[in-house]
Amino acid sequence: MASQAEGVSDALVLFMPSGRRGRFPLGTPVLEAARQLGVYVESVCGGRGICGRCQVSVAEGVFAKHKITSSATHLSPFSETEARYAKKRSLADDRRLSCSALIEGDLVIDIPVETQTNRALVRKRAEARPIEREPVTQLCYVEVDEPDMEQPLGDTDRLVRAVEAQWMLHGVRCDFPLIPRIQETLRQGDWKATVAIHDDGQPTIVAIWPGFRDKLYGIAVDIGSTTIACHLSDMLTGRTVSSSGTANPQIRFGEDLMSRVSYLMMNPDGLPALVKAVRGAIESLIDKAVGDAGADRHDVLEAVFVGNPIMHHLFLGIDPRELGGAPFALAVSGALTFPARQLGIGINPGGRVYMLPCIAGHVGADAAGATLAEGPHRGDEITLLVDVGTNAEIVLGNRHRVLAASSPTGPAFEGAEISSGQRAAPGAIERVRIDPETLEPRIQVIGLDAWSDNEEFTVKIDQVGVTGICGSGIIEAIGEMFLAGIITRDGVIDGSLAARSARIQQTGRTFSYLLWQGDQEIRITQNDVRAIQLAKAALYAGVKLLMDKYGTDHVDRIKLAGAFGSHIDTKYAMLIGLIPDCDLKNVAAVGNAAGTGARMCLLNKSYRAEVEDLVRRIEKIETALEPRFQEHFVAAMALPNKVDPFPNLAAAVTLPAPKVVAEGEGRGRRGERRRARGTSAEGAVAPLPPVPDQG
C-alpha cells in the first residue's frame, strides 16, 4: 500500500513528458487525473479496462525539483481488471492501466511514447475547388451626415440611413451590442466608416471600423471526433489563405464518440470540460490560421461549422446523452445562425456562426456538407458517398431520390482493436505488398516514401521507425494476404502455409502472419482479420440496405470521403468487400468533402438554402430497424462477399480460387468450438446484429 502520511487527503501527480501537474484526492484513477490536466492518454474503451491503450508507468525515486517522492507503491494494488487484461493480452511488469490504477500517494507518471497518439497526422486539407462567391456578409463603405440641430437623429439612425441610401438596402438594423461604439467610431473616421452587413433576409450591421477598410475573412471548421480542421478564407476573393489542424483534445475523455457519451453518463457534471476542450482547440486553430495569414481575428466575420451529431452538440454546449441510445434524439437538427459572441470562439463578437443541419440522429452536419459538396442529388448517376470512420455515414442516390444511413463500423479502421494498430502517424505502415510465390512482404511507412526493399528505406528507416500499422495499411495487408492465398474467402489464416513460409506462425490456437520484424514485431493475427471483417461487413450491410430501399442492384459511382477514405487504395477497399462492385475508374477518394461543403456555405449563401432543402428531402434509413441487416451482414463477412458478384473487380484483379481450410489447418480447437456454436461450414461468424452508435 501507499506510504502517504496519515491524515493527508490528496497527492501531487506529475505527468511526463508534458510536465503537467496537479493535486488529486486519494483514490482518483490516474486516467481521470490525466483528463483533468489535459494530458492525452488514449482510451478506446472509455475506461473499462478492455483496450489496454491507457497504459502508463511510474517513475520511481526522489524528484527534488518537483518535491515529489514517487513510488509504484503509491498506486493501488494490481486490480482484477488489470490481471484479466494481462492474462488475455500482455502487460509489461512496469506498466499499469491508468483507468484501473488509483492514486494513493505522490507520483511521477510516464506516458509511454507509443500511446502519445496526438502525434497522429491531421489529414483534412482544404480541397482545391472554385466556389462562386455570394457571401452573406459584405463590407460597405459609407459617408455619414454629421449631427444637425435641425435634424436631431441619433448617430446610429443616421448611419443606418446612410447605408440604406448609398447601398440600396432596405430595413437595415444595427446589432445592439455595437451601438455604444458607433459615436466614437464615426468621429474617429471623420464621419466616414466601413460597416459589415450580415444579410440573411434582414440586413444587419454587425461590425464597424473608422474610415475605409477592405479586409474581411471567414472560417470553415470541420469538427471531427479525432481531428479538427480550420480553413481561413478571404471573403473578398474566395481564396483559402491558410489552414490549420489539430487532434481533437476530447480524445482524452474517450477515443470514440460513444465512449465520450459514456463518460458523460458516468460523470454528469463533465459536460463543461468537454465543451471547453473543443472550443479551446478551435480558438487555437483560428489564432494559428489568422496568424499565418497576417490577418486580425476581428476581421473574421463569418464562421461555418460541420460535425457529426455528437460533436455538433458538444460544440454548442448541448448534452448529447440522448444520442447514446434509441431513438437517437437530436436536441436540434435544423441549420442555426447566431452571433459568435454566444460561443466566445475568438472572432469578431458581432460575426455570425452558421451550423449546417444534421440529417438524422447519427448522420450529422458533416454528412450534409459532404453531400452538398459531392452533389449526388444534382445528377442522374446513382452515386454512393461513404465517409469511413468509427461510425460510417452513407449517402446513396441521384437527382430523383437520395437516401442516407449510418453503420457502426467501430474503431478498427483507425487502428483500434488491431494488435499492432495505431493512428496515421510517422512510422505507421500504410502500404503493403505480398509476393504470392514467396509470401514475403514489402511495406511503406508514413514519413518515408521508399518501399522496404529499397536501399533508401534501409538507410532512412531509423529516422521514423516502424511503430505499427494504420487503417489503410491493415486494409492493404488483408487484401494482399487474400490475393496471396494466406487468408481464405472466409477470413481464416491458412496455417498449412507455415510449411512454405516462416511468416505463417501459430499464435495460440490460431495462426498469424509476421508482417515486420524489427525493434518490434508487427503481425496480422486472426483476431485482426476478424475485426476488419466485422467492420467492413457492418458498412457493406448499410450500403446494401440503401440499395434495397432505392431498388437498385448496382451503383454507377462511388466516392470515399474523409481523411481515412482519402488514403485507402480503392482497389483494396473493394477487394475486401468494404464497398460494392463498381467500375474502378468510377471509384475515387474525394478528400475532406465535409470541409468543402462548409466552405461552400461560407462563401455562397445560396448553398445554405440548397443544403437545408436537401436535408429535408433526404430519406433516413435506420439500420437497426431493418430485418435484412443481419442477412447482409453475414454475407459481407466473406471476402469480398459470399453472395454478391464482383465482375468489375474480377476484371481488374485476379481473384484467388475459393479455398476451404480443413479441420486443424489454421483453426485448431478454437475453430472447432466456433463450429459447434453455429458458424457456417466455411467459418463465417454470425454475430448478433450491431446496434448503431455514434462511435
From TrEMBL:
<dbReference type="Pfam" id="PF17651">
    <property type="entry name" value="Raco_middle"/>
</dbReference>
<feature type="region of interest" description="Disordered">
    <location>
        <begin position="661"/>
        <end position="695"/>
    </location>
</feature>
<dbReference type="InterPro" id="IPR052911">
    <property type="entry name" value="Corrinoid_activation_enz"/>
</dbReference>
<dbReference type="InterPro" id="IPR012675">
    <property type="entry name" value="Beta-grasp_dom_sf"/>
</dbReference>
<dbReference type="InterPro" id="IPR042259">
    <property type="entry name" value="Raco-like_middle_sf"/>
</dbReference>
<dbReference type="Pfam" id="PF14574">
    <property type="entry name" value="RACo_C_ter"/>
</dbReference>
<dbReference type="Pfam" id="PF17650">
    <property type="entry name" value="RACo_linker"/>
</dbReference>
<dbReference type="InterPro" id="IPR041414">
    <property type="entry name" value="Raco-like_middle"/>
</dbReference>
<dbReference type="InterPro" id="IPR027980">
    <property type="entry name" value="RACo_C"/>
</dbReference>
<dbReference type="Pfam" id="PF00111">
    <property type="entry name" value="Fer2"/>
</dbReference>
<dbReference type="InterPro" id="IPR001041">
    <property type="entry name" value="2Fe-2S_ferredoxin-type"/>
</dbReference>
<feature type="domain" description="2Fe-2S ferredoxin-type">
    <location>
        <begin position="10"/>
        <end position="115"/>
    </location>
</feature>
<protein>
    <submittedName>
        <fullName>ASKHA domain-containing protein</fullName>
    </submittedName>
</protein>
<dbReference type="InterPro" id="IPR036010">
    <property type="entry name" value="2Fe-2S_ferredoxin-like_sf"/>
</dbReference>
<dbReference type="GO" id="GO:0051536">
    <property type="term" value="F:iron-sulfur cluster binding"/>
</dbReference>
<dbReference type="InterPro" id="IPR040506">
    <property type="entry name" value="RACo_linker"/>
</dbReference>
